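USER: I would love a firmer grasp of how sequence relates to backbone shape in proteins. This is the protein in question:
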Amino acid sequence: MEDVRHIAEERAAHPRQNPVGAGFESERKQAKNALIKQIDALDGSKVRKIAATGDTPEDDRKLRVAAYCRVSTDDIDQALSIHLQIQQYTEKIKSNPNWRYAGCYVDDGFSGTNTAHRQGFQKLMKDAMDGKIDMIITKSVSRFARNLMDCIGWVEALQNHDPPIKVFFEQENLDTMSQTSGIILFVLAMVAQEESHMKSEAILLSIEWRFSRGRFLTTRLFGYDKTEVPDGYGGTKKILSIVESEARVVRWMYSTLINGGTIEEISETLTDMAIPTGGRRRDGTLNTHWSAEQVAAVLRNEKHCGDVLARKTYTPNYKDHKAKKNNGKKNKYFQPDHHDAIVSRAVWNAAQRILNSRRYGHEGTYLPMRVIDRGLLAGYISMNLTWAGFDYEDYYRASQIAMGLLDEKLEVDISTEYLPEGGRRIGGLIDDRGIAQIARNLSAVEQEIKDELEGKAADDDPARDTEADTAAFQVVNGNMFSRLLEPVISITPNGVTFNKCCVARLDPAENVEVLFNPVERKLVVRPCTDDHPNAVSWDPKYKRSAPFSRALYSCMGWEKDYTFRVPCQRIETREEGSEGYVALVFDLDNFTGKAVSRRMEETTEHRTSEPEDSAREEAKSYYYPPDEDEPQEIREMEERFRQAVEQNRKLYGVPVFRHESGARGFSRDTADLDNDIKTEARVLGEAPEVDASEVNSLLDSVRHDPPPLQRKRDIYPEHITVDGN
């Protein structure tokens, strides 16, 4: 015990330098301590530095400095501002002995939220990346770009360039090469973008307010100029006033189109006569080359008949400023008789209907609507299968009036109605009665369902029981039956075709007339003379009828992924042993459909193979549907059942259970059936005729007194003409 006490006293008197446990250090810590000792032992006295030859102090070289200027509008008030900016930056750069003037890049009348369409900015960036610029000066971050991603992206691209290119923002006193510029620039760019967003919303509200009160943003267009007139309250207002020299050209264009001319012929004539379009080429000279698109734009502009339709397009994104056609996303505003008209509304409407029909290969002039307003065929419309000047709503309304379902007259100003959207009506301008659908006669079973929904008591009719017994045998697959010997009409989105059996039913007719009743959903085909304006060659290969099939698809609510067949019934008006009149009746409700698109098949194949593919792969993500109470298998089965029901509806139509004959109402005991079947349709809404001599006189007046090559407002002052290079 005495020896142990002696050892303890020795350790207490002389403690160790290393801490307890130092002998048990880890290998990583031992390697770290060894590395520290190695660095401390390094001697750099023999190392010699070789300076980089490429790095030249900024004070010793002249920087190539360029300026960037931009204003968001091309108003005459801002033209002076852009000119003063150019002068200021030019003097500032040239007065600095360490700078060399590298040019001034200008965007006059461009928004800052998108750099893609700014030609001056794009040229500036290209020259900078090509090594022609060392520094860029601009007024502020908002002048450079109002889009956060554009601003940050371009600044980083300039910083990463070899050598780096700095941007100096005067208003913020910010140099992008400083260390603290990154976060400051990010905040300023974000503020500029949000400021642009707020301005955009304010402008949209202002436009909505202006349009709702009839104050439209009407710009100058061919045939008109904007002039100031007293507003009656001590001030002035700008209105569209007719420029007579250009108005003669506009009248000639409409008259030529109505007389059968094409837009290509009109454009060639105007180009040969060197008539200015009102625009300018890139070199600043007036443009005298007319394209077919420019002619169509003039003929489609509703302002030429004195009307104004505002908000035909809108900009959904304030950043890219890409305009989209307004198909109901935004409010539209229409005001008829807003200013003096160059052509009458009847001429303008006729031109729109002709242009609509030209898309489907129609050649010729205006074709009026022909409607039967008496007898058994009251409400049937004589169809020209190549004419697209009327929509399904036009046919439906005319049929309703002719059948007495609407208390209106057939002379309902078809030639002077409002068609502001290229010959199409605006939904808000149509009377509700004009487009109200009248359902066809319901079958017995459908009537029972309707009575049950309305709370009516069911009738004890034995006929209904009989129909209920046969209901299960109504819908069958049409492929089980042969159509070779059945007279049918085939309807596709591209046209209609009568098969050979159908043609044989009216043999030996050479030309037929097709009658369509959109209310009763029936077609009648009857023989006609060769000189009939709507005569159709009685040939099973006839397929030029896309406008007609479009009306049929709209009437029936069919989808264009399907084709349809409708059988016919032959009616005769002759007595036994005598020759009479023969016609064919097609009941469109008695159709059979066939899918022509493979999109549904591809979707089905994809869905059947998806579980196998997902089973082979390891699950990497999860999704919990909103309702977990119902198993996934039940939901999938319900979805497949719903799709099957929808597909059967498209293929076979609405079940009609003991469908009545397509020739319902055309029985032999009907009084004067022969005359009723032969009743001719009367003409509605004839196009305004333009005499050929009048068209020629308009053209001669244009030749002798063409529009001036320039106007006062087309001459730009020299002090605001800026070279973007």
Observations:
- The chain has a mean pLDDT of 76.
- The first strand starts at residue 63 and ends at 71.
- The first helix runs from residue 2 to 13.
